[in-house]
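1st attempt posting a full record on here, be nice pls
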Amino acid sequence: MRASQAVAEVLRREGIEYAFCIPSNKLIDSVAEVGIRPIVGRHERSTINMADAYSRITNGEKIGVALVQQGPGAEAAFGAIAQAYSDSVPLLFLPQGDPRKAHGLRTSFDAVEAFKPISKWSARLDNPATIHDQLRRAFQLMRSGRPGPVLLELPIDVADEEVDESLFAYEPPARYLSAANHADVVRAVDILMQAERPLIRAGHGVLWAGATDELVEFAELLGAPVATTYVAKSAFPENHPLSIGTGGTGVSAGIRAFVPDADVIFSIGASLLNTLASFHIPAGRTIIQSTNDPDDLSLQYPIASGLVGDAKLVLSQVTEELRRRLGSAKPVSAARDARAEVAAVAEQTREEWAERFATDEVPISPLRLVSEMINALDPDKSIVTHDSGYPRDHLAPHYVSTRPRGYLGWGNSTPLGSSLGLALGAAVAAPGKISVCFLGDAAIGQCAVEIETAVRNKIPVLIVLTNNSEMTGYGHHHPIAQERFGHKELSGNFAEIGTALGAVSYKVTDPGEVGPALRKAIAEVEGGATVLLEVITSALRHRYPAVDVIPN
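the predicted structure (as tokens):
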């Protein structure tokens, strides 16, 4: 057995079914030999985005694997691995490496050193005898504590070296979880019992822990509204009467109404780092922070209580303790009817936004497009993701996600053009769902060629493009460049590009045609097609900017 075959055998024993890749890498043949399907992308970044989404949608039960060539392949992968690291996504990155005699040369890219700041572990498989040990360590790390990508480089000469099969032994490592210290749980519930307007802020850790049911039970027992970050959207069902939606750079109307007035914020499964995908907390609030990584505690906010443990276990602990307390006392917040308050805000929001969602203006309003998407898609049968910028901020606060991972939120780092690769990975992981990405014309310029990847690999996906022929929101950043050189203007006929790449493509310019076109496109995707729906929209920006909503 060669070293490359030993790696493939470990992947097979781990239940890996797909390897997202770009040639050339000796592992591609080796994984194919053991029945793992290589899915070849057109660019390293999108290829790794596929592996990223695969891990998310399977909740890490099946790890996304990415293979690229040495040198330029590993170099081009950096942005996508950085994105996975910032969003705490476990994936196994296996770049090929230069032969050992080239290590240390100026012209030999050292992926192991380069990726250390953006990986949970970065190492080189330079000894065939220890390959199974290093891969066991890699999978253990990806399953333990805060998730994150792991890099293991296989030098091209090592790949062909023989492994002593009598020494090769591999069993997939188990996932181990820990709960919070009981005294910390008691302290947290003490604070919640005295809170007048408690609010629950759910992070990505709730999804990784599979803790949606526990979060619902805890929220209902406490009677507190629940918000999620963009990355955690779908961790709490947004059709629940206590849901106030999601937020990052833009926020939902519910976050706008409830977060500024909250006195105690219970953060579950989150680092509480301020990012574009994570709405900030107003200054002066009492914060309870629960995370599975003690290094997260008090990083950017002072906390009154810290709970270190798996989100599912911690939620069960605080629910049990709260239920015990409620047997003999009422919380201060019992005087409040949070459900009625949430319902009132939801009704006010419907009235406030109804005209924007229904407008017949031409070019088509992006909110009309979002409204038609909400009406056409079944959230229980769909996985929707956004791209960076205004497509994200128009869609995420309004689309109602009803099931875990029914919406793939991302963006603690926000590389433009990531959504299509993510949608492809989601479609591979959940073939029974309609996988949808919503992106703008700036974003599709960075990933359009992956339409061919979807067609060639028979991965049905719906690409909804809002094309307003500009980089919306950038004019005020560079007013001189815009006035003198029109630096934010864009152009392109993307429906024609989609057709040329093999997709079923439509262009819509009439607002009355958006709904019928979406339903037709969904039917095409259900039939196995890759569909690009290009909608010519206006350069409008309708959102609640977090900076205008969250005090301080």
